[in-house]
Amino acid sequence: MTPSIVIDDVTKHFTLRHARSIKEMSVRALRGERLSDRFRALDGVSLTIDRGETVALMGLNGSGKSTLLKLISGVMRPDEGRVLVRGRVAGLIDVGAGLHPELTGRENVRLNGAILGMTRPEIERKFDAIVEFSGIGRFLDDQVKFYSSGMFMRLAFSIAAHTEPDVFLIDEVLAVGDPPFRERCLERIRELRGQGRTMVVVAHDIQMLIGLCDRGITMRQGRVAFDGPTAEAGALVRADRQARRAAAALPDGSSSQIPKST
Amino acid sequence: MTAPLLDDPPLRPPGEDGGLRQTFRNRYLLRLLVRRELRARYKGSLLGLGWSYVRPAVTFSVYFSVVGVFLGMGKQIEDFPVYLFSGMVLVNLFTETLHSTTRSVTGNAPLVNKVFLPRELFPTASALVSLVHFLPGMVILLGGAAAAGWRPSPAALAAAALGFSIIVVLGLGLGLACAAVNVFFRDLEQVIDISVIVITWSVPMIYPWTHVREHAPGWVLDAYLANPLVSAVSLFQRAFWPPATGDDFTLPPDLYARAGLSLGVSVLVFLAGHALFARMQRRFAQEL
């Protein structure tokens, strides 16, 4: 198999600044509080994802899934280790980041398509397919700020789903939209999968991930806790969730084992 | 409807292909970003792009009536409106470039930390928007100058091109640096807004440079004339203000030598700003 994504012993730290202004800083300094905290979002993660694999990335909030996705997309750089990707990466990472409320649907298709790496002829070729898939229809020439949140998400998904990258990253976008559209999204993802594209999917809906992905990776506090069949990876996440809920119910705050929700 | 994955691109680190070269290769996206910024700037306003005429018109009227008429500058400087306006279009271009590029990365935070794009796109798009705003001013300037008896000549056009290059290169260079630094210290936005006032009054646009020579010590004059913006503004006056071709003291001495030096300095500032931006952009996503 040809590796499509190689993550080699990657570590990523974040610095959480509690104070930004001089006033806040001096207040915190006088009280003897820390000005910033450094925490490890990813800790020695190594993974190889082969071309054509559909991988589910699972874990509680704050376990490092989204950070890993950002490293693969190139938005962030690792502090240690290296990330290598073959071909063009595009993603549905928080859809709608590229949609501008003041522009019309039509203009947004072009702008967001170009942002996601499509060329002009490519966008013109796929324009009708994108509009058709989104079901925006007669609202195409209205400003996006007047769209309902469902329409907004549908348009954003539709643009991203037509970019046809070599590596497709999907973060938490399938949770929204009405059930029929969601079904169409899943269908589209299966179609892209059938074309031999590599996919990394992050979602909280374990049931859906099990149906969609051939491999599951469970993250825990910035480390890979499990890598194997999706169903087993999902079971681990369910166990983690229950443990966290139980810890939250206890009054003594013994939740240090489980990362806090962010 | 799909392109099969036949070719085999190499494994490489994502997010490496940034830089200005990549930005200009991606001309289509750059154009869409410029259009988006123009649209967003005048959202929901009746006048739309017309506001880019109103602002300089009001500034011009205030300076003209207060400085030109009440303070009598119009009597000291021949064709004062042309003198004033030829400096003003250039200074406005510079200050607007600086103002909008400084905010360009922080203003696009959702994009910067979600999708990988060459980050230089954002300051570049902002600088291009300033150029779009510069055009109507330029048209008015040409009309006014022609009415005052100005006729185009190769020397005038060369002076204009040199002055314009200094402003654009220096503006984009400083803009790149400010955009990057502003991600980490938002205070810079305020500093830039305040320095716009200083810039407006530190060039011979509302008054002639000879006032500095007469009323300030020699070292102040030297420092004043060393400012690349002073050279650029003087070049624009040389290009479009008819009396500039006349007697010797209307324009600063050694104008072309200073201007050449200014362009050199601007190129250095640009290279430094570009390098700084390229270094700092690696940490943009986690900071925003």
Short descriptors:
heterodimer, A: 262 residues, alpha/beta, six-stranded mixed sheet, three-stranded antiparallel sheet, 8 helices, 9 strands, disordered C terminus, B: 288 residues, mainly alpha, 14 helices, globular, disordered N terminus, transmembrane helix (chain B)
Notes on the structure:
The complex is a heterodimer of chains A (262) and B (288). Chain A is α/β, with parallel strands linked by helices. Chain A has eight helices and nine strands. In chain A, helix 4 crosses helix 5 (149-161). The two termini of chain A are 37 Å apart. With 288 residues, chain B is mostly helical. Chain B has one domain. Chain B has 14 helices and one strand, in the order E-H-H-H-H-H-H-H-H-H-H-H-H-H-H. Chain B has helices at residues 19-25, 27-41, 51-70, 73-76, 80-107, 109-112, 121-147, 154-184, 187-201, 210-215, 218-226, 228-240, 255-280, 284-287, and one strand at 11-12. In chain B, helix 5 (80-107) packs antiparallel against helix 7 (121-147) and helix 5 packs parallel to helix 8. The interface between A and B is large, with 44 and 35 residues.
Topology at a glance:
The complex is a heterodimer of chains A (262) and B (288).
Chain A: E1 3-17, H1 22-31, E2 36-50, E3 54-59, H2 65-73, E4 80-86, E5 89-93, H3 105-115, H4 120-134, H5 149-161, E6 167-171, H6 179-194, E7 198-202, H7 206-212, E8 215-220, E9 223-228, H8 230-249
Helix pairs in contact in A: 3-4, 3-5, 4-5, 5-6, 7-8
Chain B: E1 11-12, H1 19-25, H2 27-41, H3 51-70, H4 73-76, H5 80-107, H6 109-112, H7 121-147, H8 154-184, H9 187-201, H10 210-215, H11 218-226, H12 228-240, H13 255-280, H14 284-287
Transmembrane segments (chain B): 53-73, 80-101, 121-143, 155-185, 191-207, 219-236, 256-278
Protein name (chain B): ABC transporter permease
Membrane topology (chain B): Multi-pass membrane protein
